[in-house]
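Input record, target 12 of the design panel.
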């Protein structure tokens, strides 16, 4: 496959080894990146196909760069490419073939092999290899986006893609989608950074890899140091860019260089490679949980984007895999916390820092990029450490002031964890005059539920049944799914499993879920379910005096004010 790319820009492929950088840079008027991979593949498809991972890379005969004479170069048109070789298992394609819009169907031995690979790699590589690296994707934007006109003089972008042991076809599809759907004048360069891949098919002379695994955070920092475009734009290595994806991002950065912008992220199914997308006028923004995880939340009803679906929308946090920012402001705003290991927590750290230190973080509805969301991480973490937890503890210690108490309530295991030296990050915060976290909650994320705040709740803590000495308990269930509310012998007030709030609206709730009964089928011994809070009467509970009696409890029965139906609320703001 020939990456045919005309401009005075370059496709850069970088790698680092300890203390030095090696790179291949072709800053020519006409550049061809030619990858010729000869494997046991036929011209008709997968018969006899051996993937380079299984062959240990020995099947790869050649990969090279060549420069075409300038006088023979013909400017490329969208969708026109020269095929000079074959990639692993890639036959010729037509638009109606698998992956154009619909999912890839597998059967027999292929399906069995795919399932085996999914268990190792967290996505279906067999299905991916059946799809063209140039496949078209649906235009998922709101129709109003298609009529917008952007400035003709937008800043240029350096696209940075970090990978480690990424499969061939998702990576190539990412690169091609950038080249196919980006105006030449805005694409300054593509920078690939290989974070110490150790699979056979990355054992080529073209790429020299990091001598040891550095992780996404430090690898991205290396890529950012090499960038020379006006804007740096990070993409994960398994994305597909939509129509006119870049211009809305660049336009917003041009209008305010202190703005970090993220596209709306569509889902590419990790098992079928189907490109899912929501209605163009619906999307979500980023939130966070007190346990230190990113989550998706709905756009507030009073947000201006509810009336105009093309408007940039402020988002409290970002997922972190895909974003763009003015290159100079990236460094001025603190870049990444380089003391964080590998991956995890860096997106919340960056989000809080952006807002608290004078920047803006926005979702741009008219920019859409597809992304393969894997169900688990197929790579290892050095030392088998909980890097996400440790990185998040660093974040909360630096940026969340006294609100870190709620993090440690959910993660008591991290109270005394070794999180490294945070003095430089604290110094940065002081010198920049960054705002307190309460400002962030009041101004940026006022809809965030604070479980022990008297402005949100009437009381909080353990719900204790005095007759049995037991407490309402999550039984270690997570809030992201519905679960049956249980009870368990009360333990000390150091874990979130017995921590509940009684809201001003009369809900017994966790962070995002409320104790719920099915009001249509009230039966004795029916269980109480924790489900997303929705304000319905089935989630309202009575509180009499300083004791909670309620309508139904755990297993519901008619209220008789029996000892088994009375629960003390540990902390009552209205108690004298």
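The sequence produced for target 12 reads:
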């Amino acid at each position: 496959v020939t990456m045919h790319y005309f401009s005075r820009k370059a496709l850069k492929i970088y790698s680092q080894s300890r203390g030095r950088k090696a790179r291949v840079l072709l800053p020519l008027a006409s550049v061809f990146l030619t990858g010729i991979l000869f494997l046991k593949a036929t011209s008709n498809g997968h018969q006899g196909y051996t993937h380079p991972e299984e062959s240990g890379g020995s099947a790869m005969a050649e990969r090279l760069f060549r420069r075409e004479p300038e006088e023979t170069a013909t400017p490329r048109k969208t969708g026109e490419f020269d095929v000079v070789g074959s990639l692993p298992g890639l036959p010729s394609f037509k638009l109606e073939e698998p992956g154009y819009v619909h999912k890839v169907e597998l059967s027999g031995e292929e399906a069995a092999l795919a399932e085996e690979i999914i268990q190792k790699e967290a996505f279906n590589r067999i299905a991916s290899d059946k799809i063209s690296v140039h496949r078209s994707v649906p235009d998922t934007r709101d129709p109003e986006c298609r009529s917008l006109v952007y400035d003709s003089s937008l800043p240029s972008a350096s696209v940075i893609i970090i990978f480690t042991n990424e499969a061939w076809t998702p990576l190539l599809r990412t690169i091609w989608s950038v080249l196919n759907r980006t105006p030449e004048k805005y694409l300054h360069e593509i920078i690939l950074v290989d974070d110490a891949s150790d699979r056979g098919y990355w054992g080529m002379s073209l790429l020299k890899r990091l001598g040891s695994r550095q992780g996404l955070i430090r690898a991205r920092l290396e890529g950012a140091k090499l960038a020379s475009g006006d804007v740096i734009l990070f993409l994960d290595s398994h994305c597909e860019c939509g129509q006119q994806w870049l211009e809305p991002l660049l336009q917003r950065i041009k209008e305010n260089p202190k703005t970090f912008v993220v596209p709306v992220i569509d889902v590419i199914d990790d098992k079928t490679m189907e490109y899912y997308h929501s209605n163009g006028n619906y999307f979500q923004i980023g939130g966070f949980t007190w346990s230190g995880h990113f989550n998706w939340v709905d756009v507030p009803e009073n947000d201006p984007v509810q009336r105009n679906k093309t408007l940039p929308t402020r988002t409290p946090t970002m997922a972190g895999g895909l974003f763009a920012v003015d290159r100079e402001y990236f460094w001025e705003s603190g870049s990444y916390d380089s003391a964080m290991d590998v991956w995890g927590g860096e997106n919340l750290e960056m989000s809080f820092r952006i807002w608290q230190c004078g920047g803006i973080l926005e979702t741009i509805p008219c920019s859409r990029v597809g992304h393969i969301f894997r169900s688990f991480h197929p790579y290892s973490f050095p030392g088998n450490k909980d890097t996400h937890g440790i990185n998040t503890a660093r974040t909360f210690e630096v940026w969340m002031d006294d609100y870190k108490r709620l993090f440690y309530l959910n993660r008591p295991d991290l109270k005394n964890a070794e999180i490294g030296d945070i003095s430089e990050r604290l110094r940065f915060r002081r010198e920049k005059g960054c705002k307190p976290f309460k400002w962030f909650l009041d101004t940026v994320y006022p809809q965030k539920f604070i479980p022990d705040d008297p402005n949100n709740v009437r009381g909080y803590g353990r719900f204790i049944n005095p007759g049995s000495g037991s407490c309402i308990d999550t039984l270690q269930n997570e809030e992201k799914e519905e679960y049956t509310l249980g009870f368990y012998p009360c333990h000390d007030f150091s874990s979130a499993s017995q921590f509940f709030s009684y809201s001003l609206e009369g809900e017994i709730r966790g962070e995002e879920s409320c104790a719920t009964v099915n009001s249509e089928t009230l039966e004795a011994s029916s269980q109480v379910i924790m489900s997303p809070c929705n304000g319905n009467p089935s989630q309202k509970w009575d509180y009499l005096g300083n004791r909670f009696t309620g309508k139904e409890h755990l297993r519901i029965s008619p209220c008789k004010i029996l000892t088994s139906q009375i629960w003390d609320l540990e902390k009552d703001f209205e108690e004298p």
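The radius of gyration is 27 Å.
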